[in-house]
Amino acid sequence: MIDRLLALQQAGGRGVVLTVVAGPDLGAKLLVLEDGETVGDGPPGLAALADGLIRGARNTTVELEGRTVFAEVYAPPPRLFVYGAVDTAEALAAGARLLGWRTVVADARPRFATRERMPSADELIVSWPGEAFAQVVPDHATAVVVLTHDDKLDLPALELALASDAFCVGLIGGRRNQERKRERLREAGVAEEAIARIAGPTGLDLGAEAVPEVALSILAEALATRNGRSGGRLSG
């Protein structure tokens, strides 16, 4: 199991080690990979818990058929995929790096998507939305933020983000522009349920004005969404 777990981590895959800590089969372990592969002597029924635990991305304990099971999740860090290499994108990449997230910034405009302008991005892509999304393939551990303010880039990027499994889809811009873009998506045949996933105007209500403040607001919303929280005050 240890060898398989090391290989999983080296490959950047996801899995969960389930250990029975109380009840029948005490001490039994089962490693379940995201693709369903299992290794170990733990009760097979534990495998049914794996998908939700991997998506939850945090260690926890669960109860199953009289057993208490400790779940230890192994996964690469979350990703932040920003389409639109504007000033806010660099601030987002810098902030996400502090969180330990991997950042990808993409833009079809070569003069914007440069290493000099985006030094904090782990990966920089100069491509139209279709090519960029095909390269990144946003999954359930990816937050997408669209920043370009240009319909020919924003709209296809939003369509692709909403068709993905991204845990958060943020769109910058004022409320009037937000509704106009939602209407354009409806005209393009995007389902209302998908459109409702857009977090826009993206970010928490922090009174942000300067670019670093806006980036903090957006990252705070993405983190709260990933953790299933509303983003309210802890004192409440």
Roughly what fraction of the amino acids lie in strands?
A: 15-25%
Could you name the ranges where pLDDT drops below 50 across 5 or more consecutive residues?
none
Residues in helix, %:
25-40%
Please provide the count of β strands. 11
Instruction: Indicate the structural class.
Output: alpha/beta
Rounded Rg: 20 Å
For the terminal residues, how far apart are their CA atoms? 44 Å
* Principal-axes shape call: elongated
**Largest sheet, order of strands side by side?**
8-7-6-9-10-11
Main sheet summary: 6 strands, parallel
Tally of alpha and pi helices: 8
Helix/strand order: HEEEHEEEHEEHEHEHHEH
Average of the residue pLDDT scores: 93
Kindly describe this structure:
- With 236 residues, the protein is α/β, with parallel strands linked by helices.
- Helices cover 35% and strands 23% of the residues.
- The chain has eight helices and eleven strands.
- The strands form two sheets. Strands 8-7-6-9-10-11 form a six-stranded parallel beta sheet, sandwiched between helices. Strands 3-2-1-5-4 form a five-stranded antiparallel beta sheet, with helices on both faces.
- Strand 1 and strand 2 form a beta hairpin.
- The chain is elongated, with a radius of gyration of 20 Å.
